[in-house]
């Protein structure tokens, strides 16, 4: 089975590989850098979902793999509070797209204010944590859950939802 990953982000790549390796054998991976065709910082659940779907379809177009993944993180406001939101999609060779959402968690107001001012969460978190490339390791979820959940684990849940739907749709009835 050929699996294409529409990102070079280490946390997202690890999430896909960890889950795929749990359910399939003889898997080959290809990574492609594709666009989400949405804002650098998606600002709604709908835009974040669309970014994941676009990444999956752009990955399919480029790689034509059996499973073509797109994962996207974004934010959304609910009653003046900003939540981090996460979506994933997998595009199959026939063009079928399966999508799923994952964890949502509240961002502190000082982070939300930076995003409202036009900044992107990844660089804001790097400044906040005084670390580099937090989006490829703990991510905001790791920081704001006291390390109980990191970004890879958060995306693993989404990938598991995607693979579960894929297996259900392809079961022998």
Give a written overview of the molecule:
The protein has 173 residues and is an alpha/beta fold. It has one domain (2-105, 150-169): Maf protein, CATH 3.90.950. The chain has helices at 10-23, 45-63, 109-116, 121-129, 139-144, 151-169, and strands at 2-5, 28-31, 67-78, 81-92, 97-101, 105-106. Strands 1, 2, 3, 4, 5 and 6 form a six-stranded mixed β-sheet that branches. Strand 3 and strand 4 (81-92) form a beta hairpin. Helix 1 (10-23) runs parallel beside helix 6. The longest helix is centred in the first third of the chain and has 19 residues, at 45-63. The model has no long low-confidence stretch (mean pLDDT 94). One of its GO terms (biological process) is nucleotide metabolic process. Its EC number is 3.6.1.73.
């Amino acid at each position: 089975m050929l699996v294409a990953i529409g990102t070079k982000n280490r946390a997202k790549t690890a999430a896909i590989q960890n889950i795929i390796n749990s359910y399939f054998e003889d898997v080959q991976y290809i990574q492609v850098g594709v666009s989400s065709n949405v804002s650098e910082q998606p600002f709604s659940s709908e835009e974040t979902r669309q970014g994941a779907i676009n990444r999956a379809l752009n990955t399919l177009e480029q790689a034509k793999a059996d499973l073509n993944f797109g994962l996207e993180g974004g934010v959304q406001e609910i009653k003046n509070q900003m939540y981090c939101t996460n979506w994933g999609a997998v595009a199959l060779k026939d063009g079928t797209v399966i999508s799923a959402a994952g964890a949502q968690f509240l961002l502190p107001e000082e982070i939300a204010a930076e995003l409202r001012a036009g900044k992107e969460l990844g660089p804001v978190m790097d400044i906040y944590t005084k670390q580099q490339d937090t989006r490829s390791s703990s991510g905001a979820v790791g920081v704001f859950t006291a390390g109980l959940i990191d970004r890879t684990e958060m995306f693993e849940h989404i990938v598991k939802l995607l693979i579960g739907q894929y297996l259900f749709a392809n079961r022998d009835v």
